[in-house]
Every structure is written in C-alpha cells, then in structure tokens.
Amino acid sequence: MVLQALRYHFISRREIKLLMILVNVFALLAAVLYAFKLISPLPFLMSSVLWISMMVAFWIWLPAMIYRKSKTFKDEFTISIEENHFFIETAGGQKSWAWREFSSYYETPGFFHLYFDSKSFFLIPKDAFPEQEKLDNARTIFREHITKG
Fold this sequence. Notes:
Elements: H1 2-12, H2 14-35, H3 41-69, E1 77-81, E2 85-90, E3 93-98, E4 104-107, E5 111-115, E6 121-125, H4 132-145
Antiparallel strand pairs: 1-2, 2-3, 4-5, 5-6
C-alpha cells in the first residue's frame, strides 16, 4: 500500500509528468512513422525500450528503493490531528508540527500526502481514521490549513 502511495507521489511531480508525456509522444510518433514505413524498426524499438524503462523506473524501481531506504515507512505510529498542530508518536518518540510548516497536501485513494517542500513529505494512511467522521474532519483541517497541491 505504501508503494502505491509512493507511485502517486512520483507520478504527480510536474517534471515526471512532463517527461512521461514527452516519452509517450515520442513512442506514439515512432509507432505511427514505423507503421507508415517512414522509419526503420530501430527508432521504434528504441522508443519502446525507453517507454518500458521509464515505466519500470517510476512504477517499480524508484518506489521500492525509497521504501527500502526509509525506515519511516515501516514504523508503526499514532497520529493526532488538532486545529493548530499535527502530532505523531512512534516507539522512538514524538514530534509535532504546526500546519504552517506544511507547504501543500495531496489526497490519493489510500493516503494523505502532507508536503513540507517538493521532495519531503509525510504519508498518513486513511485507514488510520477508524470512523468516516474522523476522516472527514482530517480532510477539513487539511483543506483549511494547507494549500492543496
């Protein structure tokens, strides 16, 4: 589940979206030109390999590498969301942040991504909220205090 959240993180980045669009346009153009026999098979093959490599990198390799390197994703924690602060408690200690410390947030099907900057973020699983009311309350607090990314 965390790997899926990391995939959303990478795919949502503007520079990665742009790269994916350019590679897809290149691959489609190569396929069309190859279909009309305007290019040899090599450019079509190269565009296909580039597309597959990019998808493997952003969908499998990069999320798995980040997940393995960061013990934060494997920790068990308790969160508390209040009107002015976000609190987290793990076996190693506790930490709190004021909402102004977060630059943006992003909601995916299973997680809330709270961003400190474009590369530093915190994942909050939606199943951490046992009741729909608490999930809706968290969503409201995020909307009021953090810019939607």
